[in-house]
Design goal:
With 101 residues, this protein is an alpha+beta fold. It has one domain. The chain is 33% helix and 21% strand. It has four helices and four strands, in the order H-E-E-E-E-H-H-H. The protein has a four-stranded antiparallel beta sheet with strand order 1-2-3-4, covered by helices on one side. The longest helix is centred in the C-terminal third of the chain and has 12 residues. This is DUF3145 domain-containing protein. Pfam families: DUF3145. InterPro entries: DUF3145.
Amino acid sequence: MSALRAWPMLRFEVTEDPSPGMDGQRFCHVPELGLWRACTGANGDIVVKEDQLRTLATNSDVADAFGHRIDQLLGAAWDDALEPFRRAGDGAPVTWLHHVG
């Protein structure tokens, strides 16, 4: 992940599977958004910790602000930006990345 970050215009997603006693991790980088990181559970879902939710509830004065901050915790903007580059199922548009050497 560190080596990929050295290229600031690169888009990437790196996941680390959970292991016994440890959550997994997901890192996403999009040039216009920067780096986003979250813990993931055994099924791949983003894990939002209790203290993160308490901080959101305390600092969000309206429902829209709370919803926006939840989207930030879940990496919604990064998912939206990276989705066109993910390999999809039959019939879905796909952008193939290749190495030019």
